[in-house]
Automatic annotation (TrEMBL):
PROSITE patterns: ADH_SHORT. SMART domains: PKS_KR. This is 3-oxoacyl-ACP reductase. Keywords: NADP, Oxidoreductase. Residues 17-207 form the Ketoreductase domain.
Length: 278
């Protein structure tokens, strides 16, 4: 769609854009796959398990049939924790399109264990999936992302999913996860400088959302988490979809290198505990 009166693209319109969402079959990735599809984008999403991809793809296609202006959806099974999986994902994307307008690096891994029991494997797995894979996909998909700028359109986008655990000390012992998300936030800045002006790179740092990864925490501590949040709740699908849609849309074309907390003000309004020294 176009803002015909002004002769310029509508600032929040992503209809017709082709966007890849990694880890798009469940959790925040599924929220984004659905939200971007509703907004008229062609959504390519990946997940590791073929059965999960097939189920999510069918559910999203069924959803799209009842929405005026919805985009298209295509699921891709690929284990992007490996180099072979990254290469396979890129090949599949090329089978669907010769131009990519946005890459949403959402797929991630976590690991929790007490400090004295935290294993070396937890570092290899989590840093590999959460940091190395987004970098590698940016490398491999850059030619498809560059096509947008070469066509005289506003820049392509890369959006990295970080976490508030990379902004503040988490309440749970997830050492490699927290470190990896802090790394994602800094990698976002480095890539933003490297890939400008043709590709804008920003990050979103979500707080608690109702996902499978967070289920046990919300089941055990949901009321406590709500009370600690200035807005008194956890995130909703429309919260993450609205922000990512904006970052993909023309209205964000002067933003790059940012990490935006999406946590109801939790990290930005944190108080330092004060102690009586008497």
């Amino acid at each position: 769609m176009t803002d015909h009166a002004a002769g310029a693209p509508a600032p929040f319109d992503i209809a017709g854009r082709t966007v890849l969402v990694t880890g798009g079959a469940r959790g925040i990735g599924r929220m984004l796959s659905e939200g971007l599809l509703r907004a008229g984008a062609t959504v390519l999403f990946s997940a590791r398990k073929p059965d999960a991809v097939a189920t999510a793809e069918q559910e999203l296609r069924d959803l799209a049939t009842g929405i005026d202006g919805a985009g298209e959806v295509h699921g891709i099974a690929a284990d992007i924790a490996t180099e072979e999986g990254c290469q396979a994902l890129v090949a599949a994307v090329r089978d669907h399109t010769d131009r990519l307008d946005g890459l949403v690096n959402n797929a991630g891994a976590t690991w929790g264990a007490p400090f004295d029991e935290f294993p070396p494997a937890a570092w290899d797995k989590v840093l590999g999936v959460n940091v190395k894979t987004p970098f590698r996909l940016a490398q491999l998909l850059r030619p498809l992302l560059d096509v947008r700028g070469a066509a005289g359109l506003d820049p392509a986008r890369i959006i990295n999913l970080g976490s508030i655990d990379g902004l503040a000390v988490p309440n749970y012992e997830n050492y490699s996860y927290a470190a990896s998300k802090a790394a994602v936030h800094h990698l976002t800045k480095v890539l933003a400088k490297t890939l400008a002006p043709g590709i804008l790179v920003n990050a979103v740092a979500p707080g608690p959302f109702p996902t499978k990864m967070m289920k046990w925490v919300l089941d055990d501590h949901g009321e406590e988490i709500n009370r600690a949040n200035p807005l008194g709740r956890v995130g909703r699908p429309e919260d993450i979809t609205a922000l990512v849609t904006f970052l993909l849309a023309p209205g964000s074309s002067y933003l790059t290198g940012l990490t935006i907390p999406l946590d109801g003000g939790l990290t930005s309004t944190m108080s330092v505990a004060m102690y009586d020294n008497d």
